[in-house]
Amino acid sequence: MSQKASLHKPTFHQDEFLPFTRPDIGDEEIAAAVDCLKSGWIATGPRVQALETAFKETCHAPYAALLTSATAGLHLSLLAMDVKEGDEVITTPLTFISSVNAIVHTGARPIMVDIDPKTLNMDVSRLEDAITPRTKVLLPVHFAGLPVDLDPLYEIAHRRGLRVLEDAAHAVGARYKNRAIGSFGDTQVFSFHPCKNMTTAEGGCVVTHDDDLAKRLNRLRFHGIDRDAWNRYTKKGSQIFDVVEAGYKANMSDLQAAIGLAQLPKLEGFCQARRQHVERYRTLLKDLEAFSLPAIPDYDHDHAWHIFTPVIHPEKAGLDRDTFVTKMKEANIGLGIHYPAVHLFSYYQKTWGFKSGDFPHAESAGNRIMSLPLWASMTPDTQNRVIDTMKTIIQRA
Ligand SMILES: Cc1ncc(COP(=O)(O)O)c(C=O)c1O
């Protein structure tokens, strides 16, 4: 059966609300979930182990640990890197809030470096200015699935003795200089949320090249217990265990892993399809001066295109981003906003002293950015509908 034939509801009627994303779930995922439900084992178990093995092979990495979310992966990885109060972690202001909340949850201070306005990734050339004796970890985000320029970033990290935690929530399937994200470097965190390039319904995965970090993470995700807890329910396992630190509860279930095992073989196809849709969007949007499209950097990479994010120019469009998004919604098309700049949120201003103007490029992008509908099985008709509606709104403005 072809991938498309097995997908559930790839098309939308003209008068139906079009979401900005939807998971590409086929008969294989449904059958895998049903098998798991019938198997008598739905919590963490053999399917989680199988997906960890398959995912680390895909990433060419020695360790992979599945968790309930990438948010948990970021938090627990920072703890496993011994980040605590008094430390600083450097990240970008143009990210989902969980990248920065994870830093705060460890007690460390979040430090931000403005973005490059063309790529929307952290501007690595400004990174060294933000490093202090308290800096412990660099936390770059591969925004939209575009790999950060990792060679200069790792050069700085090695020279200054810093750890690197890559927020690769958007970058499942991305490559930097012909190497899969996750296949080199320190530690990477992927998201399998339903809007990501592959899904486990909710879920995330930490990939690492560090033996000690992998062991600590394994404990932290399950109460601080000293070994694979699910084994104790099997005939071979033992019910006796020790708790070696006060851990958390963030282990993925086999039911989620079953879905992931059906998704993973399709990942490359999903990414290819997203790349084609983005090429088509670019062609259809090229004469619309009201928008600028994401720049493609010079270094060799394969973009994962988790999201496609034009930036509106209100003076050319005749309306601002929020009005445009509202008008699209009135026309039955949902757009995403990824993301308002983190330093503008009230908590970050009140508690950490950030203020408007601190990161002008992130602020400007955050106020003008939008994500167009994008998922692997979307059809050309759906894309035409999005672009026609955009053009009509701009013409009327
Ligand atoms: C950049 C970034 N980091 C982390 C996350 C958290 O992922 P999850 O929803 O799996 O916790 C997201 C979620 O969208 C994200 O966009």
Question: What's the total number of strands?
Answer: 12
- Please mark out the parts with pLDDT under 50 across 5 or more consecutive residues, or reply none: none
Which percent band covers the strand fraction?
Answer: 5-15%
- Tell me the series of helices and strands, N- to C-terminal: HHHEHEHEHEHEEEEEHHHEEEHHHHH
Helix content: 25-40%
Structural Rg: 21 Å
Q: Count up the helices.
A: 15
* Classification by helices and strands: alpha/beta
How many distinct domains? 2
What is the highest CATH level, the class of the largest domain? Alpha Beta
Look at the structure and name the CATH superfamily of the largest domain: Type I PLP-dependent aspartate aminotransferase-like (Major domain)
Largest beta sheet: what is the strand line-up?
1-9-8-5-4-2-3
Q: What's the CATH architecture of the largest domain?
A: 3-Layer(aba) Sandwich
Shape: globular
What small molecules accompany the polymer chains?
A: pyridoxal-5'-phosphate
Distance between the termini: 46 Å
Break the fold down into its secondary structure elements and pairings.
Elements: H1 3-6, H2 27-39, H3 46-59, E1 63-67, H4 70-80, E2 88-91, H5 97-105, E3 109-112, H6 127-130, E4 135-138, H7 150-160, E5 163-167, E6 175-176, E7 179-180, E8 187-191, E9 204-208, H8 211-220, H9 254-263, H10 267-285, E10 291-292, E11 301-302, E12 311-312, H11 314-317, H12 321-330, H13 346-352, H14 360-368, H15 380-396
Parallel strand pairs: 2-3, 2-4, 4-5, 5-8
Antiparallel strand pairs: 1-9, 6-7, 6-11, 8-9, 10-12
